[in-house]
Q: What sequence folds into this?
């Protein structure tokens, strides 16, 4: 029997859909194993169509994208209700992803920037999109934008995850193998993450000598040695705080990891883990302690710690909002 | 009055829907294309280090991440005031040709071709890529899958990842191209050149040769006389990676030619309360609403617009196809919205030929691919032709190189007005006396699809039917009739 598979969407760039298409010839294997009853379409259609499905009638629901609008939240709940198993597919669903950086700002600030302050915008009356607006004789509606971007597990109970921005084709091929097992009634245990169980450093092709660093450099400031660990050359690389399984594709292009696979197993807060990793390579400088001002200088070399250490995981971080002073 | 909702229609910058309003007689009074989401990159990019922007902004769009990566990388060149070595520019352009190919091939075969090859009013269950393969044969289907795969693979070799590439740096690229990689790319490029020729022939033989389709393409249902904008090289030929921006009017006369960094002198944007997507227009002409003609500042971008503003193509086979297309369409500029699909194939030909040219360039494997920037200017503009049209990234940063302000003008934004107008006109011509069926609604959607703002449909066509539900509602939103494919 073919499995029933559904794909629900949050706030997404659709790179996750492209990743599925990148299976190329193997897409046919996917279609062989599963009847795809839904793939990215709009909420209205899906909500209506989903009414035809009973509770848990769909074998596997995939959700990609951050949960941001009222519609996307509704979709998450429906997909949960109709699916025996629900998978967070891609970094946005797993951890909030890059759209989750919106939590550093507010809807009001975003509206002001987009619809007023951008220099090409001519909008003296500061007109903004409305959830309901009358245009002549017609009433038009838009879904409401929520203040926060959320990861799927913060909204509904999630069974499996497949991280990556976008997920590596090799991991989607692994999902195909799981689908074949699921056809035989073998479900992976709840909490299964389709990725590596180790950190990215474990699969990194570059050489590490466990030496300390004396300065932190930004990617544009240094042409790195192509064989040596980027972090040990002073370039912030999220490898030690990131789950492997992506094939180290960014590092193979000589660019540091930015953590899209999320924290390694057992780690809740990716940024905290990265800070610990940096502290360890800063502190053991040739086995003698660094003077305090030296440490301050080094740490000051880290620009934008939030946007670097939590680039893909801000909505699931322990501290996930910008502090605001009450006016 | 009744209201028809076509949802979904778009996936490019989030989601979209079409609302069509009918009067008591069942004729179309008004139609709206609404973008129903906003993510706010303009705001949350503030505070990020400039050099990280090419790794953040591709997430605006997973269909054209390469375009955002490139525009962002070029904005960094400007903001750090550094000129990449010649070989780095070639590597970037090589990558970018593959990006255009990947996007255009996906659109043409998965999205547009079903309407033309299987038929605009055919059984929706067949009107998809599988239906196309059935019509043209499995061998051709396999060729399409391989061509798209190669275009993705070339991007991965250079960019690290095909979707959300990482290789762009101010002053160059992250790594040189190895000889063995170059050989691989050359081989794939040869295949892509042949594939592009084949695609143009297929368009001739299977699409334009059918009179009813030819009439549809050149007919009035899908016609709008607007201004056009696109990037050209120094000889006014189409260029995706670099050049000046040229604007022509409804008769094809050049009305503006400017450096991308001067865009604020030429483009303004309007906000409408019923869409999250803004409406850019030509500043000198002004906003007159969703109408075409010389008095209206509405302009269009994307494939046909690029060919309309250019004097030709820079490679031989593409030039031949360009000449042939305008000869057959019988006018230049062409105002036939459905011809965007044809123009896309002419561009596929150019991108493939240029790809091969670059892959066989003796200098492409040189090692000097990066220059370390020495200072920061604080403001920079990056511009490329995204597959769907001109793309502007404008950044401001402080002396530490931290972003303070961002302005983005994206392709689909610039076609926002055009899309709205095309949908309304097609709906008015096709839906009469409340007569609505899936074939007619699909023809309304074809107006939209020509602009290629859509992935949902493209991906959907792969596994099976393209689902779509149309709700006929009165103005209070009460459902009167439901149609679904």
A:
């Amino acid at each position: 029997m073919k499995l029933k598979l559904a794909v629900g969407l949050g706030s997404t760039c659709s790179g996750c859909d492209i990743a599925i298409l990148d299976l190329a010839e193997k897409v046919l294997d996917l279609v062989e194993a599963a009847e795809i009853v839904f793939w990215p379409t709009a909420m209205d259609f899906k909500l209506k169509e989903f009414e035809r499905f009973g509770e848990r009638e769909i074998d596997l629901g995939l959700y990609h994208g951050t949960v941001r609008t009222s519609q996307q939240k509704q979709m998450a709940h429906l997909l949960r209700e109709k699916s025996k198993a629900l998978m967070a597919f891609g970094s946005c669903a797993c951890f909030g992803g890059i759209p989750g950086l919106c939590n550093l700002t507010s809807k009001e600030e975003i509206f002001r920037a987009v619809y007023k302050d951008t220099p090409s915008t001519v909008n003296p009356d500061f007109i903004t999109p409305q959830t309901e607006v009358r245009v002549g004789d017609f009433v038009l509606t838009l879904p409401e934008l929520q203040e926060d971007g959320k990861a799927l597990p913060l909204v509904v109970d999630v069974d499996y995850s497949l991280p990556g921005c976008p997920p590596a084709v090799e991991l989607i091929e692994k999902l195909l193998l799981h689908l074949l097992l699921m056809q035989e009634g073998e479900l992976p245990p709840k909490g299964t993450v389709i990725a590596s169980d180790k950190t990215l450093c474990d699969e990194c092709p570059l050489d590490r000598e466990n030496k300390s660093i004396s300065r932190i450099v930004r990617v544009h400031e240094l042409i790195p040695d192509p064989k040596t660990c980027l972090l040990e050359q002073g370039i912030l690389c999220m490898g030690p705080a990131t789950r492997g399984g992506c094939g180290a594709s960014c590092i193979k292009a000589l660019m540091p990891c930015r953590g899209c696979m999320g924290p390694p197993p057992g780690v809740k807060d990716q940024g905290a883990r990265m800070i610990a990793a940096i502290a360890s390579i800063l502190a053991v400088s040739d086995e003698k302690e660094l003077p305090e001002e030296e440490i301050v200088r080094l740490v000051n070399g880290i620009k934008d710690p939030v946007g670097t250490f939590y680039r893909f995981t801000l909505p699931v971080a322990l501290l996930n909002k910008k502090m605001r002073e009450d006016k | 009055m009744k209201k028809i909702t076509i949802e979904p229609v778009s996936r490019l910058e989030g989601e979209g829907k079409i609302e069509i309003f009918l009067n008591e007689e069942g004729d179309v009074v008004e139609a709206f294309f609404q973008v129903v989401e906003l993510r706010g990159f303009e705001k949350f990019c503030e505070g990020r280090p400039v050099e990280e922007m090419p790794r953040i902004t591709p997430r605006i769009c997973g269909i054209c991440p390469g375009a955002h990566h490139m525009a962002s990388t070029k904005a960094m060149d400007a903001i750090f005031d550094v000129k990449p070595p010649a070989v780095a520019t070639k590597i970037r352009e090589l990558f970018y040709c593959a990006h255009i190919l990947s996007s255009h091939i996906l659109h043409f075969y998965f999205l547009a071709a079903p309407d033309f090859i299987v038929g605009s009013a055919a059984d929706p269950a067949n009107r998809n890529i599988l239906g196309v393969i059935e019509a043209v044969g499995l061998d051709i289907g396999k060729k399409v899958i391989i061509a798209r795969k190669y275009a993705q693979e070339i991007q991965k070799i250079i960019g690290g990842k095909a979707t959300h590439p990482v290789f762009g740096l101010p002053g160059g690229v992250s790594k040189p191209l190895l000889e063995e990689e170059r050989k691989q790319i050359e081989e794939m490029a040869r295949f892509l050149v042949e594939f592009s020729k084949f695609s143009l022939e297929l368009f001739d033989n299977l699409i334009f040769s059918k009179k009813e389709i030819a009439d549809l393409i050149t007919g009035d249902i899908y016609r709008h006389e607007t201004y056009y904008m696109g990037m050209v090289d120094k000889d006014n030929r189409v260029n995706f990676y670099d050049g000046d921006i040229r604007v022509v009017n409804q008769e094809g006369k050049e009305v503006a030619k400017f450096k991308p960094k001067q865009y604020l002198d030429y483009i303004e944007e309007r906000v409408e309360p019923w869409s999250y997507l803004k409406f850019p227009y030509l500043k000198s002409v002004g906003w007159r609403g969703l109408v075409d003609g010389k008095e209206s500042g509405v302009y269009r971008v994307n494939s046909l617009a690029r060919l309309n503003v250019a004097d030709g193509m820079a490679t031989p086979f593409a030039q031949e196809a360009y000449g042939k297309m305008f000869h057959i369409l019988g006018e230049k500029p062409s105002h036939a919205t459905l011809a965007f699909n044809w123009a896309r194939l002419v561009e596929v030909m150019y991108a493939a030929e240029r790809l091969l040219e670059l892959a066989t360039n003796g200098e492409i494997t040189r090692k000097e691919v990066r220059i370390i920037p020495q200072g920061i200017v604080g403001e920079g503009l990056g511009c490329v032709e995204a597959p769907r049209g001109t793309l502007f990234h404008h950044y401001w940063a402080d002396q530490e190189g931290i972003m303070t302000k961002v302005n983005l003008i994206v392709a689909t934004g610039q076609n926002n007005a055009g899309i709205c107008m095309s949908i309304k006109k097609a709906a008015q011509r096709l839906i009469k006396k409340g007569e609505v069926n899936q074939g007619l609604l699909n023809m309304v959607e074809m107006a939209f699809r020509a602009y290629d703002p859509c992935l949902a449909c493209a991906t959907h066509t792969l596994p099976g039917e393209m689902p779509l539900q149309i709700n006929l509602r009165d103005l209070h939103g009460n459902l009167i009739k439901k149609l679904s494919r």
